[in-house]
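ingest -> validate -> predict -> emit
validate: passed (alphabet ok, no gaps, 69 aa)
predict: started
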Amino acid sequence: MSQYLAWPTSDGVWHIGTGLTLPLDASLADLNNLLALRHIDRAQIGFHRPNDEARFNEQFATAIDPSQR
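emit:
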């Protein structure tokens, strides 16, 4: 079970748990910094709606496979 739910609002701001937010243009580095400051592992994040995980992973991709370009 996930300890933190993540969801985007209609304006693109990501909410993670209670009180943590990332702006529309947040990068992977921004996410990693926020998680490190709060001692949260990315695996602890769950998602509010089924499509939210795909959107989150698209914005905060951890690696890009060169063959997929």
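The radius of gyration is 12 Å.
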